């Protein structure tokens, strides 16, 4: 109960669209994206190239040929390069599960406090186990008997 309250308070104070780890990851990817060049042909598909590699990024489908964006929900280096070229913030294109608002919704519920075990009511339930012949490994009977 205390951990849920702590998490909620911490995240409510935090500013920004995404969780801290995602924000840090996007900062690193933004710095690395300076090594790439994004080219458009007028469609939502972009060719992002470096001296050694070329990747196709589809900003409409939120996908990249490298596969990182689809797997993690965070724009990869190549997608960040495209968003830099478009003067858009890549934080706005993170999967909704990684947004601060979603995190706050998860921790929005409350747990009812409980009395200690000494105050719990005793349950008077008898559980009977009926042994069925032939169902346990130890019962190896011949069918013909």
UniProtKB/TrEMBL annotation:
Keywords: Metal-binding, Zinc, Zinc-finger. PROSITE patterns: ZF_SWIM (PS50966). It comes from the Eukaryota. The keyword Transferase does not apply. GO terms for molecular function: zinc ion binding. Pfam families: SWIM. Residues 55-87 form the SWIM-type domain. InterPro entries: Znf_PMZ (IPR006564), Znf_SWIM (IPR007527). The keyword Zinc applies. This is SWIM-type domain-containing protein.
């Amino acid at each position: 109960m205390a951990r849920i309250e702590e998490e909620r308070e911490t995240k409510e104070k935090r500013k920004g669209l995404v969780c801290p780890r995602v924000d840090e990851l996007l900062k690193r990817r933004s710095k690395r994206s300076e090594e790439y060049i994004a080219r458009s042909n007028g469609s939502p598909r972009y060719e992002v190239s470096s001296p050694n590699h070329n990747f196709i990024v589809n900003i409409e489908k939120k996908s990249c040929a490298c596969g990182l964006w689809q797997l993690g929900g965070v724009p990869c280096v190549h997608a960040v390069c495209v968003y830099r070229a478009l003067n858009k913030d890549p934080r706005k294109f993170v999967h909704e599960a990684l947004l601060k608002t979603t995190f706050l919704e998860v921790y929005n519920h409350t747990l009812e406090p409980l009395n200690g075990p000494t105050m719990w009511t005793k349950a008077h339930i008898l559980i009977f186990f009926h042994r069925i012949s032939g169902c346990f490994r130890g019962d190896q009977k011949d069918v013909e008997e």
